[in-house]
Structures are given as C-alpha cells and as structure tokens.
Amino acid sequence: MMLAAVTALRILLPILYAATLGLYLWLFYSDHPTARHRSTQLAAVTVITHMATMVAQTAYLQRIPLESPLEFLSALGLAIMVTYLVIELRIRAKNTGFIVVGMAFFLVTIAEIFFRNRISGNPLLQLPGFAAHAALAILAYTALSLSFLYAILYLILARQLANHSFGLLFRRLPSLEVLERMSIGAIKLALPLLFSALALGHLWMYHLRDTHPELAAQLTPWDPKILTTWVIFLGYLTGMAGYHFLGWRGRRMNMLAVGAFIVVMGATGAAHHFFPTFHKFTTASATVDPRHPGANP
Amino acid sequence: MTGSTILHARTINHRNAPTEVREKAHLGEEQAVALMQAVAEIPGGVAVIPVSTCNRTEIYLEVTEGADSPAILREALDRVGACTDVFFGEHAVVLDGMEAVEHVFRVASALESMMLGEPQISGQLKDAYRLSRLHQEPGPVLLRAFQGAFRTGKRVRTETHISKGAVSVAFAAVELARKFFTRLSDHTALLVGAGDTGSLAARHFLQQDIGRLVVVNRSPQRAIELAEVLREEKRTGKLGDARELPQVETESHYGLVDQRPWEELAEAMAEADVILSTTGATEPVILPEMVHRAVASRKGRPIFMLDIAVPRDIHPDVAGIGGAYLFGLEDLDEIIKGNLAARQRQVPHAEKIIAQELAEFRQWLADLDMLPTVAEFRTYLEELKNKQVGFVAKKESPEIAAAVDRSLQQFIKKVLGRSVSTLKQARTEEERQHALETLHRIFGEDEPDKD
C-alpha cells in the first residue's frame, strides 16, 4: 500500500513540475491573466506534493531519502522550488519563474527517471545529526543554484541590451541591478549555510567517535569531497570579499558567479566519480524498482 | 431602456473627426454646466454628462422613455450656444441604449484613446461626472453607467497590462535606464548639454527620483543657471515640463543638482551611472578613450549612455566598449513600438472584462423593471403596518406600539426580500413579467384596499 502510494506520487511529481514549468513559460511569453493567477497556485501544489512524496518515502524506507546523489537532486529541486516561491511571494515578480522552475523540473525529472527505492540504508542516515547536516548542505546548494540562475539571467539581459534587442526578455526581466542583487544575495545566504553544513559535519564526525565508533571508522576529514567543498566555500568567500572590498560588479562579477557554479558542479561530480568511498551510503542496500516492486537488481 | 428612462450618446472623437471639428465640438466647463441646466428644463430631459478632452467631446444624455432625445439635445445645445451642427453632422457617432453604455465602458478603459491604455482618460471622465453631480441629479441609468465605467476602467488597468510600458520618448528613456538601475535614487545622472532637450530629459529623471544630477555644458553660466532652475523645481515639486509622467511612489528624495566645468567632463563620466548627452556640437564630444577611462574606474559597474543629440554627441565606437551601453533616439522609438504592440495584445483581455461588466449592467437594468412594482408592494405593506400600529397605539402603551412597529418592519423587510429574490430567479422573461403583473394587480394603487 505504502509502496503504491510512493510510486504514484513519484510518477506524478515530474508531471506536476512539467505542468508548472509550462504555466510559467506561458506567463513569460504571453503574460496571460490565467497564467499569472494560476502559476503560483500550481507551484504550491507541486511543492506540497513533493513534500508529501518525501514524507511517504521516509515512512516507507525508514530513513531520510538523501542516500544517493539522485535523492539529493530531488531534494535540491524541492528546495529550489520552495526558495523560489518565497522569493516570488516577497518581491511579487513572477517573470523569472520559468528558469527557476525549469531547473527544478530538470533536477526532479533526472532524479525520478533513474531513481530506485532502496529499502535498507546506511545506519548513518538514521541519525538526526545527519539530517541537520544534509538539510544545511541542500539549502546551501539551493542558494548557489539560484545565484547561478540569476547570474545567467543577468548575462542574457546584458547581452540583449548591448545588442539593442528590446524583445520579450527586455520587457519581462527585472533590471540588471536587481538580478545582480539577487545573485549576490543568494551567495551571501549560501556561505553561512555551507559553512554551517561543513562545521556541523565535522563536529558530528568527532561526536560519532564517542557514540558510534564503528560508524566513525568510515569517515575522515580528509575525504576529497569535504576538501572540495571547503575549496568551493573559500572560492565564493573570495568572490564576496572582491564584491565588498574591491568593488567588483556587473558583467564580470556575474560571469564569475556562473563560472564558480560550473566549477562546483564539475568538482562535486568528479569527487563523487573518482572517490566513491565517502558520502555514498548505498553499499549495503537492497534496491526496489517502484515500477517493478518485486524485482531486486 | 429601463421602462422609464433611456440613454442616448453622441461622440466626436479622434477616430471620426479631424482636429478642427473636435475644436468646434469642445464644451468648456461653463457650457457643460449650462447644458445640464438646459436639459433639466426641457420636457423629457432627465440629465446629461458632457465629457470634453483634447481628443474627444461626448455627450451622454438620459431622457424619459418616449421622449425625442435628438430633439432635446439639439434644443439644449442651441440654448447654450454650442456648435450644434457638429453633433448632428457627418463626424458625429450616435449611440443609443446599451451601445452608449458599452462605449463609455470602453472609453473609461482607455480602449478608445488615441494612445491605447493612457491613464488620463479615467481622471477626465471622473471630473466630468463630479461636475455633473454638483449641478444636477443624474438619472439612475446615467449614474449606473458611469459608476460601471469607472469600475470597468479600474479592473482593466489592474487586471491587464494595457497601461504598462512607456509610450513617450521621455518615459522610454527612463524605462530603459530602469533596465539597468531599478532604484534611480541610488544613482547619479550626468547631463551633457544644457539646452531645451537636455533640460526636459533632466526633468524626467529628476521626477523619477534620480539620486544626483550633474550638469556639464560648454558655457558654464548656462549650466549654473539650469542647475539652479532644476534644483528649485525639484525642491518645490514643480517639474512642470514633465507633468505627463506618472509620479513614482518612492520615499521623498530631493536629488542634488550640481554643475561641473566642461574640462571635468571625463571625471564626471566616471562618477555617473546614467549619461544623457544633448549638446548642439557638430562633432562627437564623448570619445572612446574617455569612456574607456570611465569604465576602467567603475570595476564592472555598467554605464547607461543615451545620446539624444542630432548630430550625435557620443562617438559610435563607444558602443563596442564593454560595460558602456550606448543608446540613441531610434532605440527609444523601438521600445515605444514594442510597448504599443504589447498593449494591443492586452485588448482581448480588456474586452472580456468589459463584456462581464456589461452583462452585470444588463442584469441591473432588467432588475430595474421590478422597482415600480416592488415600490407599490412596499407602499401597500407600509400602509397596512401603519394602520395596525395606529390601532395598537390607541389600545396599548407607546412602548408596545413601538415594539409592534419594529416587528412589522422586520416582517415587511423579509417579505420584500423574498419577493425580490423570487422575481430575480424567474426562469424566463415571460415568467418574470407574469409575476410582476400579478403583484401589480394585487397591490397596485388602482386596486381597492381590501381593508
């Protein structure tokens, strides 16, 4: 029964994300009143459904659904949607919705297509310290993703203005100043979150030595993924120092934000690929394909 | 139209009449008031609302049913010395009944305006309405039509984007600047040239709360004078030449207006976020090397440059410098065209709103037919109640009589409410008419009192 519910919700999720993206695209292209009125409502429905899916998955799998990179992607998609909805409700601007929802749709669809329900997980995943660490990391990466998206929009609009193109993007997008402020604001939000996620991870690791020595044996602070994350943190911190103390602004700063996020994705992917020992909790798992519940690959 | 009054309208506007005809048709405030009085004096005339703007003169007339509305209007116009023939000539458009209502709804929504979606027409209609309320009591149809028009106009402006986007050169310049800087109050504008065009552009930016304005001109005296004038206008809130722009609702911010000598142009450029160039020079005065220096000192912050001089003030090679965004009059023209096309795309949405409001108006009109019969019924019930209360007052104390009066009043309210709601719910017009006739037959004045 629970598996059926989880399966149904997970099939529904990409459809809902696609419908929300369609509505935001319609809004962007036509500014139609129906799209304007319904887009936020559908986005809220999508977020609630996604949250319900995660709750159902947690209940069914008896662990937080953050075991694999795919589960992480899905959670990142949800966090992006939630953050975007908060921003939209605060600044009452919906015109950048298509790009943010587009990214969330991409992440969730990838996650749901390749995802398999794993019934037994690593015991680390059942500890509350992990949940806090993972939640902070997801929020930090969400903020970095939004910073990337707004920096992309900045560069697109700057290009449009330089080319004297006064079309749809010119009319719909907010000013360069606002886009830059949103991109930089997202980084400012990401930095303390990322630092907290790293610090909590380290503290939790030392705490495990006393409470769960057998689990602590799996962990080391010199893991390449942790080191990569520290490098990412220091890179963004340097960028912010340049922004505040050296007056870095405009196209250059936004290109830096885009480049930094590409490096983040590349470095994280490479670390996962070449050093699959840590932050991969799936070694002792059994997998259930939701579309073929009886089959264990 | 209602069974008691009908609406008749005549319009002379930019679509069907040339300027000289519109000038002849124009009705000043005194003539408008005189026309209201004249209509009230003519038998059959109920009320009139004349609306006269630079693009249109329209007369909305309400007369009793069966009255000859054109004859009443002609006589009233003759009496006030207006150019009557214009309103009965080839350029006048005549609208009767619901056509007139639809027209005023469209006018209030700025669908009939020369500049689609312009905001002024709403205020002009309201002024005409207020004037009419001061000097006459409009009939129910005229009153409801204008109130409906204001509601429709408001809905169209808020629920569609028909008024969105700049449609004048000056406002397009501000709109373009706002694509770089949302809060102009945090930024500095540099005006190069202190001529008429430059001062007008500067006024627009000051009205939009630019944080600081620096004037640079070859003749320092002219720059000083203009800066002083602008400073004073900003201080007193009299940026007269820029009146057509809507005021931006931001916190009160008196931008500092300053001037610098021509020799400091390059330094002033480095500090400016917005550069407006409008000199009368025959050769470019802002050269690529000056812009390179300015851009280098700004560490990536963009400079918005608008060259509205003919011949151009800013060297064309500046357009290729990263961080400097150069625009000219042709760009503003393109923005305006794009905005007008976008407004045009909002027309179907606006027309849907108008159709909804017209349907509501039609329903109100249909309900208006019931009023005389319902009034008869109420009178009958009130008389009955007064008799009963009088009877009780003779026999009982005043307190008891007052209690009976209150109780019967409640009873009447409920009976009337139920009757009106039943009449409104009639499935067909015939059924409704039949019910109204029955009510009239039983409770109408010509029926003998059953008491």
Structural account:
The complex is a heterodimer of chains A (297) and B (451). With 297 residues, chain A is mainly alpha-helical. Chain A contains ten helices and two strands, in the order H-H-H-H-E-H-H-H-H-H-H-E. Chain A folds into two domains: 1-118; 122-282, no CATH class. Helices cover 76% and strands 1% of the residues of chain A. A two-stranded antiparallel sheet of chain A has the order 1-2. Mean pLDDT of chain A is 82; it is low at 282-297. Chain B folds into three domains: 5-164 and 346-364, 2-Layer Sandwich (Beta Polymerase, domain 2), CATH 3.30.460; 169-339, NAD(P)-binding Rossmann-like Domain (Rossmann fold, 3-Layer(aba) Sandwich), CATH 3.40.50; 370-443, no CATH class. Chain B is built from 17 helices and ten strands. Chain B starts with a strand and ends in an 8-residue tail after the last helix. Residues 241-255 and 447-451 of chain B have low confidence and may be disordered. Chain A binds chain B through residues 30-33, 157-158, 161-162, 164, 166-167, 170-171, 174-178, 246-253, and chain B through 159-161, 165, 178-183, 298-302, 322-323, 325, 327, 331, 334-335, 338-339, 342, 345-346, 349.
Summarize this, please?
The complex is a heterodimer of chains A (297) and B (451). Chain A is 76% helix and 1% strand.
Question: Characteristics of this structure?
Answer:
heterodimer, A: 297 residues, 2 strands, 76% helix, disordered C terminus, B: 451 residues, alpha/beta, Rossmann fold, 3 domains, 17 helices, 10 strands
Taken in chain order, the helices and strands of chain B follow as EHHEEHHEHHHHEHEHEHEHEEHHHHH
N-to-C order of helices and strands of chain A:
HHHHEHHHHHHE
Envelope shape of chain B: elongated
The CATH architecture of the largest domain in chain B can be given as 2-Layer Sandwich
- How many domains is the backbone of chain B divided into? 3
